[in-house]
Amino acid sequence: FAFSSSCWTTCAKRNMPGNDILSQTLDRLTRGIPKRELRLCITEANECEEALQKDIEVLEKALENGDETNTANTNAVNEMMESPFTPLDRYWTTSALMGRLRGAMAPPSLLQIRDPAAAASLAATKSTTNKSSKQPDPSKIPSGATTSPEAQNLLDMMQIPAYTRTEETATILACYKKIFANRASIVFKKPVKDEEAPNYSERIQFPMDLSLVRKLIVTRHITCFRQLHLYTGLISYNCVKYNGRETDYGIVARDFEQVADEIIRQAVLAAEKNTAGVGRPASTKRPPSSTPSAAPPMVSEDSVKMPPA
User: Fold this and answer.
1) Hey, how many other C-beta atoms are within 10 angstroms of the C-beta on 147?
2) Percent helix, strand, coil in the chain (nearest 5)?
3) At a CB cut-off of 8 Å and minimum separation 6, what does 206 contact?
4) What DSSP string describes 129-142?
């Protein structure tokens, strides 16, 4: 259940139903990550794949030998099954990227593998809590599904001109305020300090929070919805990287990104609709002829009252 970027690319080339949306979603998630982080992610993904292959070999040997499995192999299997970490969870950047996948495309957690009944109960509880949400319930998506309406909506959004078009500061700020006001963003409103999270500055090389996002909007470093989307994604990435994908904060990060994704998507749709309305051809009827109004009187410089020095 640990996948590397090379695995996703290979799957996408096989023309299997649903694999294309997965590869495109991963591509979308990497766009807001700095290049240095991506290079580290590729290195860790390869190491993760090698570790996974070793674990598979140990398990296959145990299955082949049955009761005749040697002590060393038995101990290796027991240690693997009792470990709180999977090969994916031992690598921060790879786990952070994969940990942002939601719904059917998300890698299974240890709870899902070791205790499917408990995982199903937890998913049902969360579903009951979020009945009022318009988002599709991940627990109702068939197991093994390789597509997601939510993921497809976000990919479609990227093709809308309003997503990359430069907007007024007020327009971007209005979208930002909706994200900021949502309760899912409460832990991301201020910078993380090392006193609160030990060694945070060492592990997270590109910190981001909502207060900094606002400054970037006001100073016109963020001028379109795409840039806002990338920075909110970086907030989620950093949180999952530092805390782990299956921790409480990792789950909160996914919830936050899901909220931000939908708010930005709705803002893009509204902006595109407004643009289409403005671009409609005006009425062909001409106004009735009338005597042209007189031009406004010219204002001379002498008539302008200057404020006292």
Assistant:
1) 18
2) 65, 0, 35
3) 34, 37, 234, 238
4) HTTT--S--GGGSP
Q: How would you class 135 by CB atoms within 10 Å of its CB: exposed for 0-12, middle for 13-18, buried for 19 or more?
A: middle
188 is written with which tokens?
């991301």
Measured distance CA(124)–CA(143) in Å, rounded: 14
What is the rounded distance in angstroms from the CA atom of residue 51 to the CA atom of residue 59?
13
Q: What number of CA atoms fall less than 13 Å from residue 247's CA on the CB side? A: 13
> What confidence score (pLDDT) does residue 56 get?
83
CB proximity list for 172: less than 8 A, separation 6 or greater: 217, 222, 223, 224, 225, 228
Task: Write out pLDDT tens, residues 100-114.
Answer: 888 777 776 655 555
| 139 neighbors 128 (Cβ within 8 angstroms) | no
How much is the pLDDT for 284?
45
Write the pLDDT tens digit of every residue in 39-90. Answer: 988 888 888 888 888 888 888 887 777 655 567 677 777 777 677 666 666 7
Greater confidence (155 vs 95) lies with 155
Could you tell me the pTM of the whole model? Answer: 0.70
Region class of 36: left (phi > 0), else alpha (psi between -120 and 50), else beta: alpha
And the tokens for 90? 């031992």
